[in-house]
From TrEMBL, chain A:
Taxonomic lineage: Bacteria, Candidatus Nealsoniibacteriota
GO biological process per UniProt: phenylalanyl-tRNA aminoacylation
EC number: 6.1.1.20
Cofactor note: Binds 2 magnesium ions per tetramer.
Cofactor(s) required for function per UniProt: Mg(2+)
Record protein name field: Phenylalanine--tRNA ligase beta subunit
Record gene name: pheT
Binding site residues for Mg(2+): D354, D360, E363, E364
Residue ranges occupied by any B5 domain in the UniProt entry: 300-376
Subunit structure: Tetramer of two alpha and two beta subunits.
Family per record: Belongs to the phenylalanyl-tRNA synthetase beta subunit family. Type 1 subfamily.
Keyword tags: Aminoacyl-tRNA synthetase, ATP-binding, Cytoplasm, Ligase, Magnesium, Metal-binding, Nucleotide-binding, Protein biosynthesis, RNA-binding, tRNA-binding
Length: 678, 352
């Protein structure tokens, strides 16, 4: 929010230069984003904190600066003209929504001469981002910038007349101002000639016939104050912050007034502000107060907070004397009600709606004492070793294993688009949808990681011959529970991709990963285009190629091999246990064996047979070659193995090995169509 | 047959001696012609005569002939290398061109955010902090209400939130309304509900902010939250912990300053700046000439937050802080655009 330096200076004697003023604010109150010279003035762009509704005003900021300089808050100027409470004379105020309008203060000023504002006022408005309209409108805007209380002026003569029954047969012509909810589909044309369709959640100021203003947000055209206006009604009201926020949001209309109301204003501010407004209008446009009404059924009174003096030091970690604390709080207009041995009871002025508990007072003391004076102290706590976070531990372990194998970790957005949903054939009922997405690109939360990993392949395919990537991240799915209720699940998934048709290699990656995570008993089962990975008979993931249809649609030029694992399941199976297996002291011997089998024979079956006939001394069987075509007869494949023979308790003699090897050969040849090559 | 074998042995022996005795490439060629010429070579003659042999003999002799041929080819080759080396450098040893580019060895890479997250975790763990985590989809209660946010207060505007579309009509202020967490602070509530003080935790995690992206703004980010609750914890203790962290992380002396701020879940609240590590506080482009870099929000945990999480605020006090991990990573590696992190571009990722 923009503030005029010269204006602030008017309230605070001895204010230093603009840069130093900004530094004071930064140190004690708010961030200053910019200082800009404007004519003879400087404009400070101050980031007022959202709990300080009182500081959306020059008086509020001036107060912060005064206290920072060790002075008291500037005092309010009292109202010159007297205001007769509750007696409007020529008008009545009817507040239908007492909960949404806690106070409505209005003053009738007759015989004003609307003209142009003096240059000083015009400039200040302009510096603070408000256009000059005419002397009366400028005056109330000026007071808003000064006090933070939004005000509005109506052309009194344009408000509809009502015949009021005074006695049994006597009527009096009166104007009636009504604070009510808008009716459904009611319309209003605002001061900037825009038409808005209202609804029942929006509060309006209306006469007997129609809305005159959208309460706390914007004035209407009907009772606009222009150069011809003679009699004006000044409104200074307090509207409920939630009602204004909802109304402003539903209309898509944010104004200087709505911004201030949204933050929650002090109802006691209306009287002080309207007093200033009357004074200023009279200075600029003359006029005479002929009536005023102050609807304020439940006045808000100052409240009390007991401050335990020791608590301030306990929170801040620095000793501030009681005297100093009291001085700071008194400068902020808090009053000491009672001093006890260890505590002080303070009365809090109603404009400081942010001060509710003693911690709030400790903050005020700390702010103006200076946070920089707080020293650095190591906490005194007892030693306690870290307790490992199992989720993060296993995630990190899996990431390290894949990294060591040569995979690079990617991070992707957790969203998928409408188009991607269609391409992958997801049902929107199973997806988690974002209510307010940035764009249709981020409409749903991802149910699988493949969608974004495929994008990564596309990003990299022109720069790299070989791409090995993985992501370990969350996926979101909507599932129906037993009682038909929808539940959103959030689970970790590990997915890796590799360019090329490299099933065998990728299977090796999965095997190594599982082994290193301490998971034994993995098996593979045929499934769609690839294999399902099972551990102890339950599925934990899958491994295989990717649908060419999707690759084509995504313009991915290379075939891919992919695996995906349910990381939640994996973590439960993982174990750090790893027992050393004694290494045999006896030599091993290697023999090769090549066997010709029908193409569709499963390699696992061949190995199982070899183990069966070879017995315990068959230590290891490694497939080192698969060969088809050329010299191999049609419909057959040649499998070549290294077999390592070793015993744990003796040296195997060459004759013994020959015998076992021959047994395997014989065993294999029993199978129809299997032929061991010699 | 043994005749033939004997002859082959003889050829091998003789040719071997001949090759050994020579010193010039031209002579080498002569020997090659003598034995291996496709028409008149001595060895080739033997191959030709193979057709006259039969069965076992044919196989045996063929095998031997091949062996001798391989031997000759190999001997000629290594002699040629030897002669050439003598001519080039004189030493006769193989010359090594050490300017040859090293073979590119492919290894895998971890994401820079993973790397820096581990580093951050390591420093805090060394000070006795545990690492906690929590879900990315949160309830309005955990994310806002329990953290002392007033209903529909403009304070919430600072947490541009993505809301999850509900199947049924739901009151926008309902505590059960779901959202994508815009900060990791709800994990404070979750953790304190499960663990009574004293406690020291950090919470690294992914967060989401509904805002347009550019070089320094992202809608999907990573945050590190910190929480310490114990007897008599104060602002001076917070200053100590965060300074120790910064010194260890940047491996140099760092200064911090606290500016007043407002967060509904802390009281008092601060913004923390640290002295610019590039210019040391003199003012440069990175710190926008201020000498300070904005780092995090922090404060003393609000008594209402402790109460909402089931902790007795009369007995315990604590501090909490939260900072952007992405920004820290950018500073560490001098990365100029936050969008690299979610790009999946290996030209970027393989640098870490």
């Amino acid at each position: 929010m923009l503030f005029s330096y010269n204006w602030l200076k008017k309230y605070v004697k001895g204010l230093p230069d603009p840069q130093k003023t900004a530094d004071l604010l930064i140190k004690h109150s708010f961030e200053v984003e910019e200082i800009k010279k404007n004519g003879n003035d400087w404009v400070l762009d101050v980031k007022v904190l959202s709990n300080r509704a009182d500081c959306f005003s020059h008086l509020g900021i001036a107060g912060e600066l005064a206290v920072a300089l060790g002075k008291k808050l500037p005092a309010f100027v009292p109202l010159k003209a007297g205001l007769r409470r509750g007696k409007g004379g020529k008008f009545k105020v009817v507040v239908e929504e007492k909960n949404l309008c806690r106070r409505y203060t209005a003053i009738l000023l007759e015989n004003v001469k609307v003209g142009e504002s003096p240059i000083k006022i015009k400039e200040r408005l302009q510096f603070c981002g408000i256009n000059s309209i005419n002397s009366v409108v400028d005056a109330v805007n000026y007071v808003m910038l000064e006090t933070g209380q939004p005000l509005h002026v109506f052309d009194f003569d344009k408000v509809s007349d009502v015949n009021f029954k005074v006695q049994s047969s006597k009527f009096k012509v009166l104007k009636k101002i009504i604070v009510r909810r808008a009716k459904a589909n009611e319309k209003i044309t605002t001061l900037d000639d825009k038409e808005y369709k209202l609804n029942e959640s929006i509060l309006v100021i209306a006469d007997e016939e129609e809305p005159l203003a959208i309460a706390g947000i914007k004035g209407g055209k009907k009772a606009e104050v222009g150069s011809g206006s003679k009699n004006i009604l000044i409104e200074s009201a307090n509207f409920d912050r939630l009602a204004i926020r909802k109304g402003s949001r539903s209309l898509g209309l944010r104004t200087d007034a709505s911004l201030r109301f949204e933050h929650g204003l002090d109802p006691n501010l209306t009287m002080e502000a309207i007093g200033k407004a009357v004074n200023l209008i009279q200075d600029l446009a003359g006029g005479k107060v002929t009536g005023g009404i102050d609807f304020y059924p439940k006045p808000v009174n100052p409240w009390r907070i007991k401050l335990d003096i020791e608590k301030v030091g306990k929170i801040l970690g620095v000793e501030i004397t009681e005297e100093r604390i009291i001085k700071i709080l008194e400068n902020l207009n808090l009053a000491v009600v009672k001093k006890n041995k260890d505590s002080v009871l303070f009365k809090v002025p109603t404009f400081r709606q942010d001060l509710k508990i003693q911690e709030d007072l400790a903050e005020e003391a700390g702010r103006f004492y200076g946070f920089e004076k707080i020293s650095i102290q190591a906490p005194m706590v007892y030693l306690k070793p870290e307790e490992r976070n199992e989720n993060i531990f296993w995630e990190d372990r899996a990431k390290d294993i894949l990294k060591e194998i040569g995979f690079s970790e990617v991070f992707n957005y957790s969203f998928i688009s409408e188009d991607e949903k269609d391409l992958f054939g997801f049902n929107s009922a199973d997806l988690t949808e974002i209510e307010n997405p940035l764009s249709s690109e981020q409409k749903y939360l991802r149910p699988i990681l493949e969608v974004s990993l495929l994008k990564n392949i596309k990003t990299n395919q022109n720069n790299f011959d070989e791409i090995n990537i993985f992501e370990l991240g969350k996926v979101f799915r909507k599932i129906k529970t037993k009682n038909e209720k929808c539940k959103i699940t959030e689970e970790r998934i590990l997915t890796a991709m590799m360019t090329g048709e490299r099933f065998c290699e990728m299977k090796g990656v999965v095997n190594l990963l599982l082994k290193k995570l301490g998971i034994a008993g993995a098996s593979y089962e045929e499934f769609e285009n690839g294999a399902r990975i099972n551990v102890n008979q339950s599925a934990v993931g899958c491994l295989g190629g990717f649908l060419p249809r999707i690759l084509k649609a995504l313009k991915i030029s290379r075939p891919l091999t992919i695996f995906t694992l349910d990381f939640e399941a994996l973590q439960k199976l993982s174990s750090e246990e790893n027992n050393y297996c004694p290494i045999s002291r006896f030599p091993s011997a290697m023999r090769d064996l090549a066997v010709l089998v029908p193409v569709k024979t499963k390699i696992a079956e061949v190995i199982a047979k070899m183990k069966q006939f070879g017995g315990v001394v068959t230590k290891e069987i490694d497939l080192f070659d698969i060969f088809e075509g050329d010299n191999i007869s049609q419909g057959k494949k040649n499998l070549a193995f290294h077999i390592i023979y070793q015993s744990g308790d003796r040296t195997l003699s060459p004759e013994e090995i020959d015998e076992i090897h021959a047994k395997i050969v014989k065993g294999l040849e029993v199978e129809a169509g299997w032929e061991v090559r010699k | 047959m043994y005749n033939m074998i004997g002859k082959l042995e003889e050829i091998k022996k003789q040719a071997g001696e001949e090759i050994n005795s020579i010193g010039a490439i031209e002579e080498l060629k002569k020997i090659e012609k003598k034995y291996l010429d496709k028409k008149q070579g001595e060895l080739v003659q033997i191959f030709h005569s193979l057709k006259d042999l039969a069965g076992e003999e044919k196989i045996e002799v063929g095998k031997k002939a091949n062996e001798v041929r391989s031997f000759l080819i190999e001997a000629l080759k290594s002699k040629a290398v030897e002669i050439k080396a003598k001519e080039d450098g004189g030493s006769g040893e193989e010359w090594l061109d050490i300017t040859i580019p090293g073979k590119k060895i492919e290894i895998g890479h971890l994401h820079p955010i993973t790397l820096v997250r581990r580093e951050v975790e390591g420093i805090f763990k060394s000070m006795g902090f545990n690492v906690a985590d929590g879900p990315e989809i949160e309830t309005q209660w955990n994310n806002f209400d329990a953290l002392n946010f007033a209903k529909d207060h403009p304070a919430k505007d600072g947490w541009d939130t993505f809301w999850i579309k509900s199947d049924k009509a739901i009151d926008p202020d309902s505590p059960e309304r779901l959202l994508l967490r815009p900060h990791t602070s709800p994990v404070q509530i979750r953790y304190m509900k499960e663990h009574q003080p004293p406690l020291r935790i950090i919470i690294p995690g992914r967060v989401y902010r509904n805002e347009a992206t550019d070089a320094s703004h992202e809608f999907q980010l990573h945050q590190v939250e910190g929480l310490m609750v114990d007897k008599d914890i104060n602002v001076a203790n917070f200053k100590y912990v965060i300074l120790e962290f910064l010194k260890k992380f940047f491996k140099r002396e760092v200064k911090i300053r606290l500016r007043p701020s407002f967060f509904p879940f802390t009281e008092p609240s601060f913004e923390i700046d640290f002295s610019c590590i590039i210019c040391g506080g003199k003012g440069c482009r990175v710190c926008k000439q201020t000498g300070w870099i904005e780092m995090m929000g922090a404060g003393m945990v609000h008594p209402n937050v402790l109460k909402n999480a089931g902790v007795n605020s009369k007995l315990w006090t604590g501090f909490a802080f939260g900072f952007g991990l992405d920004r820290l990573v950018m500073m560490k590696y001098k990365i100029d655009d936050v969008r690299w992190f979610n790009s999946g571009d290996l030209r970027f990722l393989k640098q870490f």
